[in-house]
UniProtKB/TrEMBL annotation:
Pfam families: NCA2 (PF08637). The lineage of its organism: Eukaryota, Viridiplantae, Streptophyta, Embryophyta, Tracheophyta. InterPro entries: NCA2-like. It comes from Capsella rubella. This is Protein DGS1, mitochondrial. It is a multi-pass membrane protein. The chain crosses the membrane at residues 301-320, 465-486. GO terms for cellular component: mitochondrial outer membrane.
Amino acid sequence: MDSQPPANESTPSTAYSNVVDLIPFYSNYIWNRLASLYPTSNSIFLGKISNLYRQTVSTKRQLSFPLPLPSDFPSSSMVSSNTSVDTARIHGVLEEIMADVLSNLHDIQKSLDFWQSRAEGSNARKAYFMIFERGPVAFLNESTKFVTKSLSEESAMQHLCQSSSSHMLDRMRVLLELRSALASFLAQLYVELDKRGEDLVKNPEKSLPSLLAVINGLFSNLEGSFSHLHAERESDSSVDGSYPMPLVFDRLPEVNEEGSQWTDCELTDAINLLHKNLDKLNSYLSVMVGKHRKPRRMTLFWVRYTCGAVGLSVFSLWLLRHSSLMGSSDIENWVHDAKEATTSFFSDHVEQPLLSIRDELFDTFRRRHKGVMETEEVQLTQDSLHRMLRNFCEQATREKVPDNASDQEMLEVVMNRYEKELVHPIHNLLSGELARGLLIQVQKLKLDIETAMLELDQILRANEINFAILAALPAFFLSIVMLTVLRTWLKTDSKAQGRGRIARIHRRLLVVEIEKRIMQYQNYIEQGRDKDAETIFGLLIYSLERLYRVVEKPARATDEWNLVKQDLIELGRPQQQTSYKLTVTQRLVTVYDCLLPTLKRQ
């Protein structure tokens, strides 16, 4: 397509990526050439150096899912006899092959998931990816092409979307073929180890050479798959830059392949040959996957990082302008104000409320009798009013008031008399009972005010703790937010590794993925599609290894690891019945606490 550069040209970013991808390829090539200069008799010494080199280069590639071998098969740490030395070395190279293949499968799967998610997006999302998520060089190139086509054609947006789809589909095709080839290789190796496990323990002298010859044949088959991929992609691909040289593995001599028993030198040469082939495979895949992998995080978010860098630069200049280096004291004043504001906030919303709550809890009952208005004062006012009402009623009616008469009844007499006195206010004010009635009403008003003040004082004293807690609420909410952030950080609740709800969901989704691949494998077997079934079985082993790796820590925390480990191994056995495997997957998600959802666990 015209949106892609010619095959013999490359952008600066592509050239840099090619150089980075070729470094491991040529480093391993130089190492293999140096090793070939020494005679075979020194191959044991060279093998030790080669193992040390591989451990230094690929420390992160460690096999977690166990090999399908008997429990009494000697591992690389068991060297009790000459036979166990050879067997342990075979075990070591098998672990290394499995670990590297699974690691490469994981890299391919991550890039494949990324391209699939982008391919399923809208046209606007695809156009955004082509312009803004492939780096600044691609941004300039695609922007220039888009503007040019917009001026000359009406379908510039459609052309950009088609170019984006082609860009993604080409990478997805290559990654799918790489994944299929590696999954088939992994499945064949796993089945062979499961088939030959007992013979390797009982008769290692004959079984080990046969196993090495079979593994050598598996590498040859893998070479054929990659050569087909290379020839197909070289002629029609939108990937920038040229492809690496076709992958060619070293082969065992035919005389050794048919031999029933090998010498120590021949066995050592065969193991070193497997190591060399594995290094070639890793180098080839590092280049191929590097050309088709998802963009790096720096490339994807280069716009955000650029804006952040510009913003940081502007902020730095602004900060420098207000600093003491430019003769300004603004920063010192801001720091002082912030310090005072923090101290004031801590004092008003943390220290003082806590001290108030403490004092209220310890001193409330001891000072309950004190207040603005005391009960004794109110009682004195009430008694005085009662006597005034009694005297007024006896003089006004010239009758003795009963002892059980209430203040309300006597107050009615006072009010009736008061209304009559108001007919002639001036005369009655001087010689009548009008002044006395006014004083009684003032006394009644005083009693009402004192009663209201007493009740208000009791309400305030009863709610002192509530007011102190209310003042401390801002600090309380701030503490809750900080504790939540700290809890999330400590849990490392990301993807399938962690102890929180998100990690549990991802682990359960891995179990669902395993169950679907078991069913898909059974369907392909029933349809006679052995090649597809072989690929799916390799992907099943890959999914089991991922679940095995992420569930180990939480399962050990709940003392379920031994049972979970045994069930995962059972799921990987090639001869196990499908119905039993489905039963095991149901047990994983319904019985084990490390795989239960959070709601059921509570």
